[in-house]
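Encode chain A's predicted structure.
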Amino acid sequence: MQDDIIFPYFTVREAMTFAARLRLKISEEEQDKKVEGLIKDLDLGKCADTIVGSVLKKTISGGERKRTAIGVELITDPSVILLDEPTSGLDSFMAKTICKLLQKLAHQNGKTIISTIHQPSSQAFAYFDRLLLMADGNIVYQGMAFDSPAYFSKLNYSGSKFSNPADIFMKALSINYPKKQEDDEKLEQLISTFQK
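Encoded structure for chain A:
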């Protein structure tokens, strides 16, 4: 089970303030301004003074917890943000909200955000800019997310007009283990097509 590491007895504001005190070499007043700005940007105002809680004692929602964890990392204003499954365990609405927030950080704040994500909803997928897809450790697509459905359609992997692109990719990229000849052939086709 994945869980974000945040001290469960801190409030959302205290968690971010603690990270600021440890990691920033600016005045406490400037740190506090930065914390309040992040709380606003991450839409955490309603729960800013609520205890974060833990897996056993839930106090804030999963989405609020994820946004708090992202805020703790954003406190240093990094230019590159690496996230491992930031939508894991969230319902589709909250997952979409997280993806929308990450796109906003990339577009408006100039951040480079690299994230692994499993089974995004079609609404969450709409917020992706670039996409790198892998099968059996090999890159089989790298490019604009918007162009990916058409690319896979050319390889005869497509769904209905309203299909979730991620579902199509999962079908195209799934490999059975132990691998059979048809799995090797499918993988070879995906790899060779991408390398052309």
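The chain is about 45% helix and 10% strand.
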